[in-house]
Amino acid sequence: MRKFLIAALLLPVGAIAVLAQEPKNELAGTIGRTIISDQTTPDLSTPFNTVHFGHGTSFSINYGRRLRSYRWGDLSAEVPAIFNPDEDLNYGTNQIPKEYSSYFITPAARVTFIPNLAISPWLSFGGGIGIFHASSDLLYFGSNNGDRSKVTGAIEGGIGFKFRFEARDDWSGVPPLNIDTGRSRQHNYYVAAGVVYRF
């Protein structure tokens, strides 16, 4: 009986010690696709006047740190950086660049629910910058003499799971396409999976 009582008293102490040693930092890497909706221009004189975006293979690096723990979940700060090195374009005339690259860095707050589960869901919201860099070549032939670089503000919203699946939307300005698409903002959806290291 005495051994049982000692074990019963030591069990909570051991659990508290394990919780106290739980890592607060994490470094994650994912790879996936950036998905952007096609944009139809108001120029009806142009045949096939819709800009089509490819689904560029993209990757992300993310550093996060747990700030507070609650009974229902954890509050963390994170810095997701998403890189899309090759977003192919298509259009009816030879006015636009053949491709562009984009980079989004958006510090955010993240809430993880039921953090003791291996697949704990989380929500993220933040903001930062997006950088677009257009190709030096036009779509079909010739050099791109238009503006090739653009820096824009970006608002980030994301969902995912702790083991590392994520879907994020960087709502930003539009890339330098040399034409007016009638839009000043666009959604850059990133869907990916990868690995996470906690320390």
Task: Outline the structure in words.
The protein is built from 1 helix and 11 strands. Helices cover 10% and strands 56% of the residues. Strands 1, 2, 3, 4, 5, 6, 7, 8, 9, 10 and 11 form an 11-stranded antiparallel beta sheet that branches. By secondary structure, it is mainly β. β7 (108-113) and β8 (121-134) form a beta hairpin.
How do you describe this structure in short?
The chain has about 200 residues and is mainly beta. The chain is built from 1 helix and 11 strands. The protein has one helix spanning about 1-20, and strands spanning about 25-35, 40, 50-55, 55-70, 75-90, 100-105, 110-115, 120-135, 150-160, 165-175, 185-199.
User: How confident overall, as mean pLDDT?
Assistant: 91
Q: Give the amount of beta strand, in percent.
A: over 45%
Say how many strands there are.
11
How far apart, in Å, are the first and last alpha carbons? 39 Å
> What is the helix content?
under 10%
> How much is the radius of gyration in Å?
23 Å
Indicate the low-confidence ranges by residue numbers. 11-19
